[in-house]
Amino acid sequence: MAETMLAERFYAQDRSVHLEEIPVPHPGPGNVLIEVAYCGICHSDLSLINGTFPAQRPQVTQGHEASGTIVELGAGVTGWKVGDRVIPSAGRPCLRCRKCRRGDFANCLHLNLMAFAYDGAWARYHEASATGLTMIPDNVPMDQAALLADAVSTPYAAVVHTAQVHMGNAVAVWGVGGVGTHLVQLAKVAGGVPVIAIDLDDEVLARAKRVGADHVLRSDDPELMSKIEDLTHGRMIDVAFDAVGIKPTLRAAVESLDVNGRAVSLGLSGQDIDAGPFMDFNLQRKKVFGHLGYYGQDIAILAEMLSYHRLDLSESISEVVPLAEVERGIADLEHHKNNPIRILVKP
Asked: What is the pLDDT of residue 278?
């Protein structure tokens, strides 16, 4: 193994991105070293670069959706071996907050996020905690496996844990980009019927139809609510997802709900929430939930779903760029070139 490796480095002082040769890490106690196969480019990576997310370190290697192969074990690691194909967890509990002190690590209040609080995987090698690794089944491609550590697991957790979609629920998804496309697929797997995709872009809507949406509608259609009513035979929406995170999309999601309906917001912006008039919201007992993240076991469940062909993510990989061209991949995502679901970096 070489002593240095190529890695992307983000500098907080001027929010710049550089490719540099840095030392290859060696795993400390309880950690493993992973040779990275693929790592996704996520909108949260862009948010660190453009300053929407505050930097936590002066310099950091970005990239938190990775797959790879264990090449070295740190002291005390058991249950894993060199050669295992794995997905690293994208976060570590702080071990200090009141949730961690109670053993509720999944709900840590100050979670240390990979690629923000510690180095990520836009590099040849990544040092990861052995706790939280997910084994990749032999028949699951490494590129699709990389998507599971956020791009798919966050929508999965929103569908299964927060929204609790079940068979027969009428589901609508506002915004069918990367997150929304996977919400459509997973809501359908969970039994949602019908599943309605809503967006402003006709090409994006056509893609949503290909991956499983029963119906697609434009969000700027003045007859949107009446069309939803027709498609659901008058019962409206049981679960509405807002994958955009702006006032108009959440307001429309709430407006579409049936009595006791649930709206779940996954989009992030600095705007305030608008859930409509109290008279409508309270009398119909509507509910709004915020959602972020996933549980570690969700990744393992998704890996098994891929293994058993219950889920197909082949269309989710929009582009693969070599690490040397990571800045091009960042720009392609930022400018929505070809409406990407996920662009992967291959070191």
From this structure: 92
